[in-house]
Task: structure prediction
Amino acid sequence: MGFELNLPKVPSLATIKDRLPMVFPEGTPRRGYVTREMAAKTVFVMFYCGAVEGVGHWMRPSQVTDMTDHQAENLSEEDRLAWIKVSLSNQKQRPSDTWYAANSREPIRDETIRLGLIPCGAVGEREGLPTTSSRPRYFLYSDFARLFDEDLAEYDFNIKVSEWRENHLSKEALSRLHLVRSGASLSEGDSIIVHFPNGQTRPMAPGPSSVISKAVIEVFTRVFMKRPAVIWLSESGNKVVLSDDALASQLGLKIDASRTLPDIIMVDLGEDDFAREMRIWFVEVVATDGPINEERRRSLSLLAEEAGFRQDAVAYLTAFSDRSEGAYKKCSDDLAWGSFAWFLSEPDKIIEFHDSYR
Result:
């Protein structure tokens, strides 16, 4: 295989690490796959190999696992071309200080590239290669590669990133980004005003939990309820924002602040048969921790049972900002069977954790 001296400039690994989270901000689907260190090193090796659209070189995942810190510092075209040739050879000897073990090819290929960078429109695949071929196949699209030009001023970088997102991210992904960003800006104000279904308003202290609570009350209720009413709302520090004692009494709920109550208690009064369609919702808002796990679900079910609610008339919801954030990943294994998960960034969708088929 012959190589020509036409390799593009290689941005520093530090620049790639810094810019990936700016290119793919909170709300980006599978953000972890495209912003972690493995993604930065994958992009670096693509530049190092000249695997950029139009250059005529491609990369294979084993080249990421074979890279070393020492080799990454050798940036002349002669050094790079020599390494490319060796790294693609069947007779190569792997150094002892490579970036990754040889069996790390799979997460680089399957997670970082196929599930992460390709769906985002950052990486393409060489046409005409059989799926079983070991030949290099991946490359950076040129407009994505330009985002790592170290001569770009901050203003120009921000413009190019915005244009790139508009051209490559799906409408759904852009919507998620907008909603997550809107929530972040809300949390920085003096207070967050929550509009309740009955027309009342209440201020909440700024912060991510209040942003999610506001979305549950203003958005979730509109999407998933027919005739919603909020019975209880609290915020950090167990401060009671709203307590509708009259409605709670009518429903037979004993709202005792000394008990461990959820962040939000809501009821869907339904449209037709009040008794048949009514459903009570216990909601935990998670910005960092505290989902509805099995133990929490059991304690809340007792509260509903005391009020005379049938179990099929009770719903348990944990609300998050976005699926890509650490809060959901941290709590997902603990979410109770028979409960739901909902995300501010995808307001018309809900996850149900089935505990049986009905």
The CA atoms of residues 126 and 137 lie 5 Å apart. The two ends are 61 Å apart (CA to CA).
